[in-house]
């Protein structure tokens, strides 16, 4: 499953530095606006210790972890929706991602240029979302104009016309909320609306990355950072991820041993980037099932709520098409039993039909016939 998360932010908030660390790539991250002209894309692994254990238990030749694609999108400025700066590029690239990661500056540094008089991450967030809503207003107006023509053309098709009129009424509500700059109202209207074809930018799920200073990592001192606290009060602690882009950049250049030592010095118990990857994965409502054998141990990310037959389609379309049944047990079962043979001996392996709902950590073997 292709998961894409887009890092967005105003110039010089640490977005490209974070991306460099996230992917261990080498795109420019100089101290001036628009150093990232085109979106840079990189794939990184989702940390999952279960896969490492399965590799050992099955003595597989290799492991294939779940991945997240991160897109570093060109910085924007106020007026992006009207084409200022690199706004048009930004707004077109962000349309493709599944999740927006707002990188917001929460540190003071007179040597790094800031667009405003004082550091204000909440205002930065509002600038970005305002530009998204302005672009969405343009999209909604165009759709409404098209709908008006479609309603007239469907005069002899009452059922079709009624559907178009319902969409028209819905979009007028969305347009009114956008005009009020009521981001929350727009989100509420769009959740479960069924109008996915609209692809409104401000409807995308998002997380907040609070870029704090290195010194605030020790003993979680960032919790006293006034900017971080403002973001938590606004969005909730589960949506705000504290990260020091500078520290992560330095860690990414070190060996595992050196990185562990530096983390100890900084008082870090966990890499900030691991949190970003894990919460990106979790916030999109994904779970992982596994296929294991002597050749490979493979992690498969899927949306919550899929049947085993649907999940089989993520492995190969033939498995879904010719699905007969699946042998299923969970990661917890094999860890408890110690081996696949013991799982079978202890009766922990089940034969499930096509309507079984996959659970996080399930290990499956599909029986099929095409």
Cα radius of gyration in angstroms:
24 Å
End-to-end gap:
23 Å
* Poorly predicted sequence stretches spanning 5 or more consecutive residues: 32-37
What is the percentage of strand-forming residues? 15-25%
Average residue pLDDT: 88
β-strand number: 12
- Classification by helices and strands: alpha/beta
The largest β sheet comes out as:
6 strands, mixed
- Name given to the CATH homologous superfamily of the largest domain: P-loop containing nucleotide triphosphate hydrolases
Which overall shape is indicated by the principal axes computed on the Cα atoms? flat
CATH class category name of the largest domain: Alpha Beta
- Helix segment tally: 14
Molecular structure report:
The structure is a single chain. The protein is flat. The protein has three domains: 4-49 and 64-117 and 204-283, Rossmann fold (3-Layer(aba) Sandwich), CATH 3.40.50.300; 129-203, no CATH class; 305-368, Ubiquitin-like (UB roll) (Roll). With 370 residues, the protein is of the alpha/beta class. The strands form three sheets. Strands 2-4-1-5-6-7 form a six-stranded mixed beta sheet, sandwiched between helices. A hairpin with a 3-residue loop joins strand 8 and strand 9. It is built from 14 helices and twelve strands.
């Amino acid at each position: 499953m292709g998961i894409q998360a887009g890092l967005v932010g105003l110039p010089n908030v640490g977005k490209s530095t974070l991306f460099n660390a996230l992917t261990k790539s080498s795109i420019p991250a100089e101290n001036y606006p628009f150093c990232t002209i085109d979106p840079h894309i990189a794939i990184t692994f989702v940390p999952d210790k279960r896969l490492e254990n399965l590799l050992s238990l099955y003595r597989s030749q290799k492991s294939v972890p779940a991945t997240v694609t991160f897109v570093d999108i060109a910085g924007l400025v106020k007026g992006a929706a009207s084409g200022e700066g690199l706004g048009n590029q930004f707004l077109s690239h962000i349309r493709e991602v599944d999740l927006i990661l707002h990188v917001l500056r929460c540190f003071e540094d007179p040597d790094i240029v800031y667009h405003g008089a004082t550091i204000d991450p909440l205002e930065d967030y509002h600038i970005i979302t305002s530009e998204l809503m302005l672009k969405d207003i343009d999209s909604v107006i165009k759709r409404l104009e098209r709908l008006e023509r479609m309603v007239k053309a469907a005069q002899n098709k009452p059922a079709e016309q009624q559907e178009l009129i319902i969409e028209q009424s819905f979009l007028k509500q969305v347009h009114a909320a956008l005009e009020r700059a009521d981001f929350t109202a727009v989100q509420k209207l769009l959740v479960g609306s069924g109008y996915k074809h609209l692809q409104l930018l401000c409807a995308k799920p998002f997380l907040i990355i609070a870029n704090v200073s290195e010194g605030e990592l020790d003993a979680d001192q960032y919790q006293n950072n006034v900017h971080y606290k403002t973001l938590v009060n606004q969005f909730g602690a589960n949506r705000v991820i504290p990260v020091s882009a500078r520290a992560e950049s330095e860690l990414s250049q070190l060996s595992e041993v050196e990185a562990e030592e530096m983390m100890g010095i900084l008082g870090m118990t966990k890499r900030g980037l691991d949190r970003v990857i894990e919460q990106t994965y979790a916030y999109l409502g994904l779970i992982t099932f596994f296929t294991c054998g002597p050749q490979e141990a493979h992690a498969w990310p899927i949306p919550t709520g899929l049947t085993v037959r649907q999940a089989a389609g993520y492995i190969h379309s033939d498995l879904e098409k010719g699905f007969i049944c699946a042998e299923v047990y969970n990661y917890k079962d094999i860890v408890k039993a110690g081996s696949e043979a013991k799982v079978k001996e202890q009766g922990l392996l089940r034969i499930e039909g096509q309507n079984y709902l996959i659970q996080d950590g399930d290990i499956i073997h599909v029986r099929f016939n095409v």
